[in-house]
């Protein structure tokens, strides 16, 4: 009897990762390529098809029965797999991604928002397993979000639900790439940490704090924070405060059991957590604040692949 598998692909603005995913969440034949969208749509599309076909060939050679392909995509995606908009992969705006992939690959395909895929991966096999309903937050180059309600993705009427990074936290604040002002993404992402830190860096150095090289990356800000630099510590505190403000509103709105924090910045959750939890406690009703447990994601890069495959299985089962 052939082993069954679904192809799961996590397509990001920088990297594209994929694997065959078994019913038990085991990953086989993991592959990755650079997305390289700057080379143009035609080049990107050709490379994506080759990547998918390589995974299909891996499965066929090893005797797997492939049910289909699930893909996590960084943007707003309609339920039928049509790309409304993608800030990082804008050449695909208005592209019927699921239908075109299915036509070329001769496999059923489901495309979902990448943060939703990560949320589903953590829900099935990661830090969200103990929650029936939670919000997934990804802190990296941007701020992404996904909602799991009763153990299923909630993507909204048009596939646009969960865009936490574009909730306004400062109405007259920093200009965001989405065209708005004061979005959470401008205060809690990796680039936001750098900006907030640098705004206060020289001020604190003049007051005699330990001299360090100005940070250029979020990792540099982390190193400075662990060395006790007040500007870096303040940047993490600020990020936690703004994120806590948003999570408190979500707690009051949905009374979720948890918030799972992932992405590169989440490696420093201990620096963010105190101000984050303080805001939740201050702004949410007691019953909702007590209920919402803030936990780190545990699957890392595997979450998007697992969740994309899980999203395909959901739709195949009629969920």
**Share of helix among residues?**
40-55%
Shape: globular
Structural class by secondary-structure content:
alpha/beta
What is the makeup of the main sheet? 5 strands, mixed
> At the fourth CATH level, what is the homologous superfamily of the largest domain?
ATPase, nucleotide binding domain
CATH class division of the largest domain? Alpha Beta
Beta fraction of the residues? 15-25%
List key phrases describing it:
alpha/beta; 10 helices; Nucleotidyltransferase, domain 5; 319 residues
Describe the structure.
There is one protein chain. With 319 residues, this protein is α/β, with parallel strands linked by helices. The protein folds into two domains: 3-122 and 301-316, Nucleotidyltransferase, domain 5, CATH 3.30.420; 130-296, ATPase, nucleotide binding domain (Nucleotidyltransferase, domain 5). Helices cover 42% and strands 21% of the residues. The protein has helices spanning 41-61, 97-105, 114-125, 185-188, 190-206, 218-226, 230-254, 269-283, 286-291, 302-316, and strands spanning 3-11, 15-21, 27-34, 64-73, 76-77, 83-85, 109-113, 134-139, 143-149, 152-153, 258-262, 293-296. The chain has a five-stranded mixed beta sheet with strand order 3-2-1-4-7, sandwiched between helices. Strands 10-9-8-11-12 form a five-stranded mixed beta sheet, sandwiched between helices. A hairpin with a 5-residue loop joins strand 5 and strand 6 (83-85). Helix 3 (114-125) packs across helix 10, helix 5 packs across helix 7 and helix 7 crosses helix 8 (269-283). It is globular and about 60 Å long. The chain starts with a strand and ends with a helix.
């Amino acid at each position: 009897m052939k082993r069954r598998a679904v192809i799961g692909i996590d397509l990001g603005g920088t990297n594209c990762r994929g694997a065959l995913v078994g019913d038990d969440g085991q990953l086989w034949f993991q592959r990755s390529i650079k997305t390289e969208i700057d080379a143009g749509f035609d080049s990107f599309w050709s490379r994506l098809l080759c990547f998918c076909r390589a995974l299909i060939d891996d499965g066929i050679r090893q005797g797997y029965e492939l049910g289909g392909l699930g893909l996590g995509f960084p943007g707003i995606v309609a339920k039928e797999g049509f790309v409304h908009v993608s800030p990082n992969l804008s050449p695909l705006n208005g592209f019927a991604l699921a239908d075109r992939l299915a036509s070329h690959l001769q496999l059923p395909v489901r495309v979902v928002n990448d943060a939703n895929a990560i949320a589903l991966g953590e829900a099935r096999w990661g830090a969200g397993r103990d929650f029936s309903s939670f919000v997934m937050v990804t802190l990296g180059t941007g701020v992404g979000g996904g909602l799991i309600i009763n153990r299923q993705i909630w993507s909204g009427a048009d596939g646009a639900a969960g865009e936490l990074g574009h909730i306004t936290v400062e109405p007259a604040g920093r200009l965001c790439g989405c065209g708005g002002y004061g979005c959470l993404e401008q205060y809690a992402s990796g680039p936001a940490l750098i900006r907030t830190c640098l705004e206060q860096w020289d001020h604190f150095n003049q007051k005699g704090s330990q001299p360090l090289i100005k940070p250029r990356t979020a990792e540099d800000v982390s190193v400075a924070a662990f060395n006790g630099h007040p500007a870096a510590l303040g940047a993490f505190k600020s990020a936690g405060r703004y994120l806590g403000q948003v999570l408190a509103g979500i707690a009051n709105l949905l009374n979720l059991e948890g918030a799972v924090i992932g992405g590169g910045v989440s490696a420093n959750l201990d620096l963010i957590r105190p101000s984050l939890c303080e805001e939740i406690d201050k702004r949410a009703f007691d019953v909702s604040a007590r209920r919402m447990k803030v936990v780190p994601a545990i699957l890392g890069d595997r979450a998007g692949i697992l969740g994309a495959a899980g999203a395909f299985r959901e739709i195949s089962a009629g969920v």
